[in-house]
Each structure stands twice: as C-alpha cells, then as structure tokens.
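Quick illustration for those who missed Monday's session on complexes.
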Amino acid sequence: MPPSPDPSIGSGRLAGKVALVTGAARGMGESHARRFVAEGARVVLSDVLDDLGEAVAAQLGDAAVFVHHDVTSERSWGEVVSRAEQAFGGLDVLVNNAGILRYHAVHETPPDEFRQVLDVNLVGPFLGIHAATELLSRSGRGSVVNISSVSGIIGTPITAAYVSSKWGLTGLTRAAAIDLGSRGIRVNSVHPGGVNTPMTGEGIPDEAFEPFYRRLPISRLGTPQDVSNLVVFLASDEAAYVTGAQYVVDGGQSIGDLSLFS
Ligand SMILES: NC(=O)c1ccc[n+]([C@@H]2O[C@H](COP(=O)([O-])OP(=O)(O)OC[C@H]3O[C@@H](n4cnc5c(N)ncnc54)[C@H](O)[C@@H]3O)[C@@H](O)[C@H]2O)c1
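Prediction with nicotinamide-adenine-dinucleotide bound:
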C-alpha cells in the first residue's frame, strides 16, 4: 500500500518558527528538516556527518544552516544553540532525532556499547533540553519532539541497549513535560516502527524484514515522510494543548502480538 500524499504539505504550518533538528544529515532528520522549511520554518541542521549535512542545508538555501554537532557533548550543544540564536534570532522547536542502533542480545552486548547507545539516544536529548530551555522558554511556544521508537514502548529482540535508551527517552519526555509546561514548552515523544532509512539498512538485509512488514495492519515499511507528518504537527501551534504524549507511527506494529494465526 503506497503512502498517501498529504494535501496540506507546504501550507505554512510552521511559518515564523526556528527549529533545530539533530541528526539531520540523512534519514528521518533530513526529511524533517526539508519538511520544516517547506512549512515556512528556518532550520538549524546538526549532525556529525558534515559533508552530507552541508549539502542538505545548501539545497535548502537561506532558511537553513548546518552545524557540526555531537549530541553527546555538552559543549557542542552550547555552540549549536548559540548558532540558532545568531543565525535566526531564537529557537521555537527542538527535534531530538539523532540516534544509533546496535544489534546485540542483552547477554552479548558489550558494556561499552550499552553506554555508547545510552549516551547518544538518551543523554544527548537530555543535554539538548538542558541547553535549549532558556531559548525555548523565551519563544513562549516552545516544542520539544523526542524521536523515540516502538522500542521505547515495547521490547524488541537483539536491541537491548537501544530498547533501554528509547524507554529512557519516553520517561525523559514525561518528566520534561511536567517540569517545562509552566515555561511554555511542550515535550512529546514520537515512536516510529520500521522506517526506510540508512539505519534500517545497516546490519540486516532487506529480505529479512519483508515477511515482518507484510504482517502489519498497514503492510509496508514506513517512510521518513510518514514520520515528518507527525513531527510537523507536534512542532506546530496546532498541538498547543498536547504535551507529555506518546505518538506511535508504526503501521500497527505495537498494537499487540501480530503473529497469532498468521
Ligand atoms: N529507521 C527506523 O526504522 C527507526 C525506527 C524507530 C526510531 N528511529 C529513530 O529515528 C531517529 C532517526 O533515525 P534514522 O532511521 O533516520 O537513522 P539514520 O542513521 O539514517 O540517521 C541518524 C542520524 O543521526 C546522526 N548521529 C548519530 N550519532 C550522532 C551524534 N553523536 N551526534 C549527532 N548526530 C549523530 C547520524 O550521523 C545520522 O545522520 C533515531 O533516533 C532512530 O533511533 C528509527
């Protein structure tokens, strides 16, 4: 089943907003950045992949800048947030998208790998919220969108570090939503299922995924655009009364046990 086109794309739903999207050099982050600009936002794209990130920002023109940024570094967060203020005068939206995935069962996960995954996927977003709170608060209509995963609301196999990091991010989202509501900042999490990006191509061949996706209520792999549609909504003022929420975009993967009788 092909994804249905969204007739509202490009209708200025983020006009006047400044956003920071981490991990924006490729995959879903790139899609969010492109869509945000199409909706009227100005966007700071950040990533550790400089060449790819610079190229995406160049294609987006004056509405975008790329900044080298390692989300595990507190100093790097300070620099990228300052850059948003210098380039575009403030910050309204933070999309904590950068993430890494490592395939190991819990008993086979090297402890250093477990720490590394938590550092990028959980400590990174924490540092981001920490660094951006002042500017987001000044906006008066701040929005943080944390990109978790179905692995942040259910368990998934051979991804122990990833699952732990994404459940942590689900918790961080709720805690931050409570603490920052009075500062005019909403904080929500997005939980994609399998989405076609470089991440899904790493380590496991496409054929291995196919029977799984065929069993889903919406029988296909997700696209980055499927997720961008949701991220735009949460970033926009349409979601003004939405905070601390978990939004699943997974074709039905997390509904329950899909294997029975199939
Ligand atoms: N692809 C999927 O099926 C899927 C499903 C659920 C959730 N997610 C989540 O969506 C987000 C985007 O994933 P994607 O599929 O686009 O993956 P991707 O690998 O294509 O993109 C992730 C980006 O994050 C960047 N990154 C990694 N470590 C970084 C660091 N320390 N500092 C800054 N940037 C860093 C990478 O360079 C890359 O550009 C991730 O948080 C991922 O966990 C992905």
